[in-house]
């Protein structure tokens, strides 16, 4: 009887995993904002990938939105006026802070991330220049779309009064930092789903559900 129950549980788990991967492959191909037109757009943004995780890269200063009014450069170790772009991503806090490389990944961190047991963080990185590559996609959007995008991203930060709450942490570099975020990370709401949802707000044609990096980068 016990063996039969275990067998049923294993079959159920395998079926659920297979279903997840089928949805992760199929749903990115079903586009939202499929009628969006990218011509005559005057603000350039980028989507940056490291092969697994995606961030949205935006100009720091535009007539529509000024990230300096939201993020204080003095919070960062080595940022000056030569930096023109800010990259922002959302993800599991434990994964961000405790896993600088995949070799550092622990079972507890992975379990918390997959099943929504941990908290989340925003990763903010500054860049002087952006070079287009297969890991960096360029997108043109309207001023209205950019305003909506910036507002949506800002709402992902957890605020202490009106100020993003900085996470004390020995940074991976001098140009990035981590902040407390809203929401829960899970297999259903991954960092790439967050990116896809933000792009939808900006009226960019993207997949219905984008849990994997490929669902973002292959469709831009």
Plain-language structure description:
The protein has 6 helices and 10 strands. By secondary structure, the protein is of the alpha+beta class. The protein has one domain (2-217). A 6-stranded antiparallel sheet has the order 6-2-3-4-5-9. A two-stranded antiparallel sheet has the order 1-10. It has a two-stranded antiparallel ribbon with strand order 7-8. It is globular. The mean pLDDT is 87.
Brief sketch in words of this structure:
By secondary structure, this protein is an alpha+beta fold. It contains six helices and ten strands.
The residue fraction in helices comes out at 25-40%
Question: What gyration radius follows from the Cα positions, in whole Å?
Answer: 19 Å
Low confidence ranges: none
Mean pLDDT metric: 87
Largest sheet: 6 strands, antiparallel
Provide the β-strand percentage band.
15-25%
Taken together, the total number of domains comes to 1
Write down how many β-strands occur, each being a DSSP E stretch of 2 or more residues.
10
Strand order of the largest sheet: 6-2-3-4-5-9
Overall form: globular
């Amino acid at each position: 009887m016990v063996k039969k129950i275990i067998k049923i549980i294993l079959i159920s788990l395998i079926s659920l995993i297979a279903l997840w991967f089928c949805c992760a492959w199929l749903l990115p191909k079903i586009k939202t904002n499929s009628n969006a037109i990218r011509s005559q757009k005057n603000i350039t943004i980028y989507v940056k990938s490291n092969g697994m995780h995606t961030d949205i890269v935006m100009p720091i200063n535009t007539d529509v939105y000024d990230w300096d009014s939201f993020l204080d450069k003095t919070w960062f170790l080595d940022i000056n006026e030569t930096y023109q772009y800010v990259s922002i991503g959302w993800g599991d806090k434990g994964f961000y802070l405790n896993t600088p490389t995949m070799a550092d990944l622990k079972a507890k961190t992975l379990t918390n991330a997959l099943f929504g047991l941990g908290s989340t963080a925003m990763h903010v990185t500054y860049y002087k220049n952006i070079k287009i590559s297969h890991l960096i996609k360029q997108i043109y959007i309207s001023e209205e779309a950019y305003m909506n995008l910036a507002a949506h991203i800002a709402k992902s930060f957890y605020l202490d009064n009106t100020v993003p709450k900085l996470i004390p942490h020995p940074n991976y570099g001098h140009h990035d930092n981590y902040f407390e975020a809203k929401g829960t990370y899970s297999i259903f709401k991954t960092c790439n789903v967050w990116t896809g949802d933000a792009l939808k707000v900006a009226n960019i044609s993207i997949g219905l559900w984008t849990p994997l990096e490929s669902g973002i980068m292959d469709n831009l």
